[in-house]
Amino acid sequence: MSSKHAHLDLGLVVRGHGRHYIVEDAQGQRHVCHPRGKKSDCVVGDQVRWAPSGDEGVIEAVEPRRNLLFRQDEWKTKSFAANLDQLLVLVAVEPVFSESQLARALIAAESAGISARIALNKTDLPGAAAARERLQPYRDMGMEVMEVALKADPAGSRALLTPWLQGKRTFVLGPSGTGKSTLINLLVPDAQAQVGDISQALNSGRHTTTTTQWYWMDEAQPRTALIDSPGFQEFGLKQIEPAQLPLLMPDLRAHAGDCRFYNCTHQHEPGCGVIAALQAGQISASRYRIYGEILEELSRQRW
Ligand SMILES: Nc1nc2c(ncn2[C@@H]2O[C@H](COP(=O)(O)OP(=O)(O)OP(=O)(O)O)[C@@H](O)[C@H]2O)c(=O)[nH]1
Ligand SMILES: [Zn+2]
Fold first, then answer.
1. Which of 181, 206, 232 to mutate to test the pocket of ligand 1 (most atoms within 8 A of CB)?
2. Is 122 in the pocket of ligand 1 (CB under 6 A)?
3. Of 37, 62, 87, which residue sits at a domain end?
4. Which of 180, 197, 228 is the last residue of a domain?
5. Which residues form the EngC GTPase domain (predicted)?
6. Which of 115, 117, 156, 244 could form a disulfide with 144 if both were Cys (CB 3.0 to 4.6 A apart)?
7. ipTM for the whole complex
C-alpha cells in the first residue's frame, strides 16, 4: 500500500454497515469509520490504515489482502471477507441443505486458496443417516466432515470443533436455520457484547445477522476468530473461467488428466476420464450434475 499512509494506525475491519465500518484498533477499541473515497472500499477482515476524525475515523487505505472470499453473479460481486485462514461450511440434517450451494461455497473457497471443512449439525435428528449419505462424496474426495449437535450435545460439539478453530480466522457460511447463531453462542460466550452498542445503533433495528460480524473466541489474547455471515440465496461463481472449474472440484480434478483432449469439457467428448470415472462410480452423479449446471452458467453469454 502507498507509503504515505504508513504512519497511520493499523486497524481490523470487524463489521460493515453500508458506508460505515467498525474498525478495531491494536488496543481492542472499536471505532466507527468512513472510507475516504472509493479506493478504500473494504470488507470484514481487512487491515486498514485509519486516522481519527472527531468521534469517528477515516479509513485512508486498505492493506494488501492475503485472500478474498467472494461470489459473483451476472451483475455484481459480493465479498464475504478477506484474510481468512479457513472456511467452515455449516449444514444441518434439517432444513435439508442444497448440495449445489454447498458445492459452490467449496469451489469459491478453493478458488480463493482457502481451505475448508464441512460441519453437519443436528445429528441428533432422525434424518442424520440420509444427510450423512449425501455428504459421502465430499468425504470420498478427502474433505473433512465434522458431525455435531450444537444444541443437543454442546460439550461434544465444542470438543470436536475447538482444536480445529484454535489460532485461526474461520469464516462460517451456511444456509439459514442450520445453527450458526447456536454455534456462535456456544463458542463465544460474550457474543452479544462483542456485537456492541455501536453496531446495534448503526444497525438501527435490523436483525444482527444481516451483516458479517467478527467474533474473538479468546478476548484476552485475540488470535482465534469466528466470522459469522448472513445467509444467502444465490451463489454465483462468475469469477471462474469455465476451463478452471473442474480443477476446483477435487473429485473431478483427480480424473481430468486422463482425458484424450487437453481442452475436454467432460460433457460429451470421447475418451473422457471424468465420464469414465462417473460410470465407474468414482464420481457421484450429483457432483457431476452440479458441475454441468455451473459450467453451463459460466459459459453462458452475457448480453
Ligand atoms: N435438533 C437440533 N436442533 C438444533 C441444534 N442446533 C441448533 N438447533 C436448532 O435449530 C434452529 C436454528 O438454529 P440457529 O442457531 O438459530 O440457526 P441460524 O443458522 O443462526 O439461523 P438464522 O438466524 O436463520 O441464520 C434453532 O431452533 C435451534 O434450536 C441441534 O444440535 N439439534
Ligand atoms: Zn474429460
1. 181
2. yes
3. 62
4. 228
5. 82-233
6. 117
7. 0.96
